[in-house]
Amino acid sequence: MPDKGKTKILLRIRDKPGFLYMALNILLVCGGDGAEHEISLISADYILKCLQANPNFNVIYACLHQGKYLLKDGTVATLGEDATLTTPQGVIKIDCAVPCLHGTPGETGDIQSYFKLLHVPYIGCGPEASQRCFDKVTTKLYLSALGIPNSPYIWLNNLNETALKAAHAFFLVHQDVYVKAASQGSSVGCYHVTKLEDLDDTIAQAFTFSDTVLIEKNIVHRELEVAAYEIDGKLVVTNPGEIIMPQNVFYTYEEKYSKNSGTVTTVQPQGLSDSQKQHIRQLAEQAFKALKLRDLSRIDFFLSDSGEILINEINTFPGMTPISMFPKLLEHHGDKMTAFLSGCIERALARKAQGQY
């Protein structure tokens, strides 16, 4: 991140009709009050550098915390109607927002709905698509309805006797399951269960993170991920990268982001056939279009030991940390993050001109 002294704020002067144009003011919103706050800040560091590489952008970094927008100098700003950001230094006319918010309130669709109310253009998926993909149960219902393969599952909407009985029956069939809070990311509220006596307490714990809980059959698999994004008027779905974890290690929040993680990522997995890669890209494209995604997503797959290809989950604003797969796959495909983000902002401004905000 730039030092306080290096952060410039370009204002559109409001003491005359209209605004004095100086640059495109881009509001980079990060943080949030969810479990992925710290990861959002790391992603924002990377996105900030990419945005600042475009000389036409003046980037205003704002950390969202408890409903307040905290600027780089520690002061508090207020986002108001007609895309105006009021700061102690003056009023900034925001041209476009970049919601770098993992989990709540970004991938849940809340911030997108708020931006629409305030007529603030933004990049990324809309509120409905964001909410559909953040809720694991809703995602699987859509995938199943579309005929897109995913792992066997049941879901619970309360913790009563009937729900637990259904969970026990599912476990007895599969013997090895994952219990997941339906509306969380980065493996928060996600547990591996191999003993029936552990099931009830684990489900209760998952309910502390979400109103609904998903129970999935554990699939012995390789974990593959593709970047799906729009650039130069077309949808690009990359070849898959792979997350390679130490044997018998669950991909927890700590394993994903700890400096001591034994997990490695590669954008050139070994042993995948051309037909497997093509099938993964086809399923990703089908999901991207059918769930009405926009601009960017990371779509995660399981390649089972028996050769099945299953969609695991869809991230509508994927991580942009140094170990994150989305920017690695995009760059490996031959595109540049600076150009990609600039294109997203151009499309958001076009939607604004068409009256969509």
Helices and strands: which structural class?
alpha+beta
Shape category? globular
Classify the beta-strand content into a percent band: 25-35%
Distance between the termini: 30 Å
Number of strands: 17
Strand order of the largest sheet: 6-5-4-3-2-1-7
Count of alpha and pi helical runs: 10
Low-pLDDT runs: 1-21
Radius of gyration: 21 Å
Average of the residue pLDDT scores: 90
Most strands sheet: 7 strands, mixed
How do the helices and strands follow one another from N- to C-terminus?
A: EHEEEEEEHHHEHEEHEEEEHEHEEHH
Helix percent reads 25-40%
Describe this structure as you would to a colleague.
The chain has about 350 residues and is α+β, with helices and mostly antiparallel strands. The protein contains ten helices and 17 strands. The strands form three sheets. A seven-stranded mixed sheet has the order 6-5-4-3-2-1-7. Strands 12, 13, 14, 15, 16 and 17 form a six-stranded antiparallel sheet that branches. It has a four-stranded antiparallel sheet with strand order 8-11-9-10, covered by helices on one side. Strand 3 and strand 4 form a beta hairpin. The radius of gyration is 21 Å and the shape is globular. Mean pLDDT is about 90; it is low at about 1-20.
What is the secondary structure topology, with strand pairs?
Layout: E1 24-31, H1 37-52, E2 57-65, E3 68-71, E4 76-80, E5 84-87, E6 90-93, E7 96-100, H2 110-117, H3 127-134, H4 136-146, E8 153-156, H5 161-174, E9 177-181, E10 190-193, H6 199-207, E11 213-217, E12 221-231, E13 234-237, E14 241-244, H7 253-257, E15 264-266, H8 274-290, E16 296-304, E17 309-315, H9 325-333, H10 337-353
Parallel strand pairs: 1-2, 1-7
Antiparallel strand pairs: 2-3, 3-4, 4-5, 5-6, 8-11, 9-10, 9-11, 12-13, 12-14, 12-16, 14-15, 16-17
